[in-house]
Write a structure and sequence with these properties.
The chain is mainly α. 82% of the residues lie in helices and 0% in strands. It has one domain (112-402).
């Protein structure tokens, strides 16, 4: 990254990129010095500590970004946020775990094969996730990159903030299941059913109310990002199976499949960007992202189902109720004139639409899913597990109020 700082700035025709890339290159080295000992938290299912390491730097970075933006009034506020988050993460990894790493190559043979495929997969994933911004910046300019980024960030909130942390937990569970001889194929379906019950309404809901949400948060200058966010929110929901399938394959030591599928997705995305972004603009980039997602979805399903002898009918059996609930929610909000509609005039009207849309959507989704589940004879599934969690949490809360700790 350091070597490419100047050529990249010239490629985009913006010399301001040079110091930013130099700073990011240094932060990459900082992240490489994180204490590897914290991986024990994941192996030991100590997710509360993983949560601290993840959330404290993020929240601190947001605070620094807002404060820096108020003072500096330029893009360096984002760099300051990244610096804060990376350095805090480095500090926390050493503060929370006693292990102290040092340079050594004694065990390189044991990790070389796995690490090689992991490294290749990471490189391909990084290029795949950034190639659209590179192509848009080169062909359309920096303004459309900002619009695209806002649509992408808002639309993929459900996947970035829920699927990625859950994937960390799933890796530990699948790895433990492999060691214990458990049926990871069945656990795969269980993980998908429970997670989809939560992420599907959030993703569809974000798509439905993207117009008032973006208008309130970013203002009228960012209305072009609304259709992008609407589509990306729906695409983000479909990322559930690739996320968990990739984790399952990695936990089984089959990471080469993960690399090959990611490489296929990268090729499809690159070709579609090359062909479509010139004549279609941001719509072409959106089509490229959708094509990449479709190819990866099909390949992950094919490989996972063949490897673990799974059936599509079993997947549909554990997911159809939440799909029906999301469809009912979308139909109701669309009929109310809130879902997938142009933003109302005035901040108050948009805020009301947003509150009504979220509350009504949640009520319709939960009511539909529970009603269908009851009509189906209350089978064991995601509904049973989530209701049990709610019941236990409520009972624990009541017990604490009645019998407070000394």
């Amino acid at each position: 990254m350091l070597a490419l700082a100047v050529p990249a700035a010239r490629f985009f025709g913006d010399e301001r990129l040079t110091p930013i890339l130099i700073a990011i290159a240094g932060l990459t080295m900082v992240s490489g010095c994180n204490n590897i000992g914290v991986v024990e938290f994941r192996r030991g299912l100590q997710f509360e500590k993983e949560f601290v390491i993840s959330i404290v730097p993020r929240v601190s970075g947001i605070v620094v970004a807002i404060a820096s933006a108020a003072v500096l009034r330029n893009y360096w506020a984002l760099v300051a946020s990244i610096v804060t988050a990376r350095i805090l993460t480095l500090i926390l990894t050493y503060a929370m775990h006693p292990y102290r790493p040092r340079l050594a190559l004694r065990a390189w043979r044991r990790i070389a094969a796995f690490s090689f495929w992991t490294w290749l997969s990471s490189i391909v994933a990084m290029i795949k996730e950034r190639i659209d911004s590179i192509a848009i910046g080169k062909v359309l300019g920096t303004g459309p990159v900002g619009v695209y980024s806002v649509g992408l960030e808002i639309g993929t909130l459900a996947s970035t903030e829920l699927l990625e942390p859950l994937s960390t937990a799933m890796f530990a569970g699948f790895a433990a299941g492999r060691r214990d001889g458990a049926d990871n194929g069945r656990n795969f379906f269980k993980a998908i059913s429970v997670t989809l019950m939560l992420t599907l309404p959030i993703g569809v809901g974000l798509s439905l109310v993207a117009a008032p949400l973006i208008s309130l948060l970013f203002g009228a200058r960012w209305l072009e990002a609304i259709p992008l966010a609407q589509v990306f929110a729906l695409l983000g929901v479909t990322r559930l199976i690739p996320y968990f399938a990739g984790v399952l394959l990695s936990a089984q030591g089959l990471i080469h499949y993960h690399f090959r599928i990611s490489a296929a997705g990268l090729c499809v995305r690159a070709v579609l960007l090359l062909v479509l972004i010139g004549p279609m603009g941001l719509t072409g980039a959106l089509v490229a992202a959708a094509g990449c997602a479709l190819v990866e979805e099909v390949l992950y399903l094919t490989v996972t189902f063949r490897t673990f002898h799974l059936r599509m009918v079993d997947l549909l059996a554990v997911t159809w109720r939440c799909v029906a609930g999301a469809a009912a929610m979308a139909l109701a909000l669309w009929a109310m004139g809130i879902g997938w509609a142009a933003p109302a005039q005035g901040n108050l009207a948009m805020a009301i639409d947003l509150v009504v849309g979220v509350s009504c959507g949640a009520a319709i989704y939960c009511g539909t899913v529970l009603f269908i589940w009851w009509l189906s004879g209350r089978p064991e599934g995601a509904e049973t597990m989530l209701l049990s969690i709610v019941k236990n949490t409520w009972a624990h809360s009541v017990a604490r109020r009645l019998c407070p700790p000394a």
